[in-house]
Amino acid sequence: MTRTTDVLVVGGGSTGCGIARDVAMRGVDVTLVEKGNLTHGTTGRMHGLLHSGGRYAVSDQASARECVEENFVLRDIATHCVEETGGLFVKRPEDTEAYFEEKLEGCRACDIPAEVLSAAEAREREPYLATDIDRAIAVPDAAIDPFRLCVANAAAAENYGGEVVTHAEVTDVLVEAGEVVGVEVRHGDGPRKASTDVGSTERITADHVVNATGAWAGQLGAMAGVDIEVRPSKGVMTVMNTRQVDTVVNRCQPKGDADIVVPHETACILGTTDEEVDDPEDYPEERWEVDLMVEELAELVPILREARTLRSFWGVRPLYEPPGTGTEDPTDITRDFFLLDHADRDGLPGMTSIVGGKLTTYRMMAEDIVDHVCGKLGVRAGCRTADEPLPGSEDVGDLHERMDEFGLRSPVSRRSAQRLGSRTETVLDTPGPNPTVCNCEAVTRAEVRDAIDDAGRDLNAVRLRTRAAMGTCQGGFCCHRLAAELEPDFTAEEARASLDELYQERWKGQRHALWGEQLSQAMLNHMLHATTMNRDGDPARLDGDVAFGEFDDGTGTPASEAAGESTVADGGPGAGTTGEGDGWR
Amino acid sequence: MAITSDVLVVGGGLAGITAALSTAREGADVRLVSHKQSTLQQASGLVDALGYVPPTDTGSDPGETPTAGRTGVRDRPDPEGPLADPFGAIDRLPVDHPYRLVGADALREGLELFDETVAGYRGAHTDRNALVPTFGGTVKPTARYPAATAAGLASDDRPMLVVGFRSLTEFDARQVAERLSAAGVPFPVTGAEVAFPAAFRDDAKITRFARALDLDEPVDGTPARRALADAVAPHLDAADGGAARVGFPAFLGDDAAPAVRAELADRLGVNVFEIPTGPPSLPGLRLADRLYEALDAAGVRYETGVPVVGRELADGGGDATGGHVDTLLVDRKGTRVPYAADAVVLATGGLVGKGIDSDRDGVYEPVLGCHVPHPAERYEWYVDDAFGDQPYARFGVRADERLRPLDADGEVQFPNVRVAGATLGGADVAREKSASGVSLATGLVAGREAAAEAAR
Ligand SMILES: Cc1cc2nc3c(=O)[nH]c(=O)nc-3n(C[C@H](O)[C@H](O)[C@H](O)COP(=O)(O)OP(=O)(O)OC[C@H]3O[C@@H](n4cnc5c(N)ncnc54)[C@H](O)[C@@H]3O)c2cc1C
Ligand SMILES: Cc1cc2nc3c(=O)[nH]c(=O)nc-3n(C[C@H](O)[C@H](O)[C@H](O)COP(=O)(O)OP(=O)(O)OC[C@H]3O[C@@H](n4cnc5c(N)ncnc54)[C@H](O)[C@@H]3O)c2cc1C
Questions:
Q1: Mean pLDDT of the region A45-64
Q2: Distance between CA atoms of residues B137 and B152, nearest Å
Q3: If you average pLDDT over residues A312-327, what whole number do you get?
Q4: What is the pLDDT of residues A3-15, one digit of tens each?
Q5: Are A568 and B297 inside 8 Å of each other by CB?
Q6: Cα B395 vs. chain centroid, distance in angstroms?
Q7: Counting ligands in written order, which one lies closest to the CA of residue A523?
Q8: What CA–CA distance (Å, rounded) separates A444 from A437?
């Protein structure tokens, strides 16, 4: 198999999806390949802060300016991915006055709207803030949903004629006569995958290859024979069961681990740490990191100490620094992004890499790199990604009224509407009953079916699109319900396999917070899935055959009670079958 | 003044109730106090005894479970089973398993006690397990099953229809039927999804359906039972050779369940049975009702909504970690009331209901402070495969053969206490399919032992 495209983008994170959309909108032919699902990399494992820039206002003002600019752009074009929570930098008595002042000045210097709040004012906004805080700075931080953001960008790219191919891993970069001419990919199994593709390899030739593989950029570089010094740095995030705060809460101190809480939908996410690792796919996930999160952040929000932790996850920052910089501490490595023109840098035309950066500035990064690539290709069209809303983000205004239209109860409809943006009406307007499939996150059948249409039998992808199975029960009560929705498009065996994958993946995330409520929930889930459903002992999956004849077939019970002949009332004393009567009653 | 009895049972689940019935049968004066509803509201209502011997590498010291058990999913070895004989395999369970402590005869006697006191159950006519269809589309070995489940047995070779309802999301009947066929059941089975009844809200709970059927409420003008039969009837012929029995999600009535099933069977001209689903589970709630009726019938006094919140030891040993338990403090609407007894049965359940609780530092038993062995490193509480040999699944109090709790040194911690049910560690009841059997066997022995202790 072979195919040809103008621009080939490798990597389906925020950066790659943003680039694909931008290229497609300029009328250039683009194909994006991603080895896993969209958001498989760092983008699916980040904190979800739409930076106001406040965090970098002292240490890295160039980044801070980019952040605030993009923050306002995304509020416009990605309304349905952003929740305008606002943010606070909170000063505790032990944090210095000097730094507080520096932060404030920094914000002003970078045009980040900033307002000083007294302790009382701050607690009025966030009643669970510690009682002994000094004061706070309010900034326009917000929460952003990286999953919806990537899917929306990919959808836009496709709407403009681009192609997005997931579960396609680049295994080689094709270099001919000293020039990159394309890549070789291996197709895996995944949604939207024709079964004939699975396991096959394909050459994709392209005029230009964009390496947007984040923490993996070095590996892709190696395939092309160039050195890219990515310094992956891991960070932990811990998801709490409820939304203890409605505002992004930052600690106002120079730098530190565990200094920010971001509210998301029905939960809160604590973060984070910064530790350099060798391999972006294989690094230790350590308990102290989780403990640190809760301990440190409880200084700002004391009820976190008593709260229930749902799960923890780790992500790897694709930090980059130009050769020779030699920064020791990863927290000191710049958060800025770098465009590596391999023609200039390594004498290898045909490929550009983009490394570093932040999700918040993904669109701007894409604009930069696409300008550069278009320059190479001689394409004149300019960037329009800041002006045109992403799919689903137009007219969110009247969503609340739609609620009644679909006969949904309020929390469901409100959340569905937030998730779906302007696609609400199309998605929810389905024939037949539309019951709730995931109760914790209030996800209804219509939404699940819509996601299945898109993602196929990959229930983890359905989960990412809908948030189903992401709530308090961690999927214990709804994984199997999601699998039931795969009927009749998929066989029962496929549904079973999808269920197993989803259940195991949910289990993976819970393990790091396995105590108290969460351990209790894990045991309940274990009882439901192993005891009630016998999923672990399913005879269909064990090697031997079952000797059905050796088991009780119901015959031998007294005639009036033989299997099924329950036309007699079966209550009442003596229904036990020992025949000795009811001596014990 | 303390409220006194010979024996005080703490916990109103299957284990506590069995212990109370067993104590009463010995002629001792017994009281039962319980905090909340038991796990029965979540349970399937099936009484499993032992269905599998899962592979395990649990060593003899549960405090040092090796992380080496972290096998990947693909490497998971098959368990031994499904077992037709629940008794014969008990010797192959780990030595510290509760069944090994009390023996196969205790399981037999526990089941007998259940058969004699609880109405509406089947399976006592044989020593063999039955295989029942689950809503996961598997079959599961169980020892006793509600009459409502009887027509669904998988060793019965009559053609089967499974029906599901579009507005219930718990399972899809077509998938269940396809999975059952894949399990090799000796009968043709088909599944049908039925739109019924339009009048119910999309998110109607299973209990809502049950009530409509109990009362035979009109839905869209037709009495509920008839409307349900009408909705299902057209699908009977879909089964190969015509269905002789129809399985429903377990919502066929609550108080009037037998009458609901009878009427449906009559209208459809086939046997009707229920497939238990997840919480809230009507078969589990019905079993809880039957158990409390059995307590009434045996004259056992019980109180619910009253948690035990503290204990006092003989010799005034307030801070002591062991000794003779004199008095339990029961929280009655905010007041701490002392309950004194000669012997105590601790049947407060396991991790699900927090009879065994944990925090970031460790695992503990909150009522008496019984020792709960567990790895000090929290990351050794689990393995990577969700259905693997999970150390946490075996967390609980360890006991001697008389079910007295043991401390860290293996010495009896509280001599006049007996432990029963999910509070006991050492079993992975979920993978073994042994949950209720463990509660019955240990409840029986704990009750009998407590009566003997009180008589001493
Ligand atoms: C702990 C943490 C918290 C963060 N919090 C925030 C925050 O709050 N706000 C913010 O703005 N930013 C945050 N960031 C930064 C942000 O998440 C990243 O900068 C951004 O997501 C990077 O996106 P990307 O597309 O460049 O990389 P990725 O998302 O990693 O995408 C690269 C993709 O390339 C794919 N790939 C790799 N190799 C191949 C191959 N051979 N073939 C095909 N595909 C391949 C991978 O599967 C992956 O999906 C955080 C980062 C971390 C680690
Ligand atoms: C989802 C699920 C499905 C199940 N399915 C099956 C099945 O298919 N087959 C099967 O055989 N078994 C099944 N079971 C197991 C069964 O329901 C019981 O969990 C098991 O028999 C243990 O019972 P128990 O009495 O020890 O504990 P529990 O049922 O937990 O009862 C403990 C009782 O103690 C009370 N208590 C706790 N602390 C205090 C206190 N401080 N003071 C006073 N009272 C207190 C609690 O409120 C509760 O009433 C299932 C369980 C679950 C959770």
A1: 93
A2: 13
A3: 79
A4: 899 999 999 999 9
A5: no
A6: 17
A7: 2
A8: 5
DSSP string, A288-319: HHHHHHHHHHHTTSGGGGTSPEEEEEEEEEEE
How far, in Å, CA of A100 to CA of A108, rounded? 13
Tell me how long chain A is: 585
CA dist A378 and A366 (Å) reads 17
pLDDT, position B199: 58
Query: For tokens 């009522």, what's the residue?
Result: B367
Who's near B136: CB < 8 A, 6+ residues apart?
A480, A529, A532, A533, A534, A535, A538, B171, B176, B179
Taking the C-alpha atoms of residue B104 and residue A97, their distance in angstroms, rounded to an integer, is 72
For residue B308, what are the contacts with CB-CB under 8 A and spacing of at least 6? B10, B33, B35, B328, B329, B330, B331, B339, B348, B367
Asked whether the ipTM of the predicted complex exceeds the cut of 0.90, the reply is yes
> Residue B249 has which token pair?
């999600």
Mutate to test the interface with A, among B194, B287, B360, B395 (most CBs of A within 10 A): B360
Residue by residue, DSSP assigns A454-514 as HHTT-HHHHHHHH-TT-STTTTTTTHHHHHHTTTTTS-HHHHHHHHHHHHHHHHHHHGGG-
Query: Closest by alpha carbon to A535, among A478, A508, A497?
Result: A497
Verify whether the Cβ–Cβ distance B179 to A549 is below 8 Å. no
Identify the helix (H) or strand (E) that includes residue B430.
helix B429-432
Tokens 């009253």 found at: B306
All structural domains of chain B:
132-284 (3.40.50.1860)
Domains along chain A with CATH numbers: 2-43+147-229+335-377 (3.50.50.60), 82-142+232-314 (3.30.9.10), 448-562 (no CATH)
Q: What is the pLDDT of residues B320-370, one digit of tens each?
A: 788 999 999 999 888 999 999 999 999 999 999 999 999 988 999 999 999
Q: Mean pLDDT in chain A?
A: 85
Closest CA to B360 of A526, A513, A222, A331: A513
Scanning A500-519 for CB atoms below 8 A from B yields 500, 503-504, 507-508, 511, 514-516, 519
Q: What was the pLDDT predicted at A293?
A: 87
Residue with tokens 């879909």: B238
Residues of chain A in contact with residue B258, where contact means CB-CB under 8 angstroms, are: 566, 568-571
**Residue contact A546–B184, C-beta within 8 A:** yes
CA B4 to chain centre: 30
Task: Determine the 3-state secondary structure of A71 from DSSP.
Answer: helix
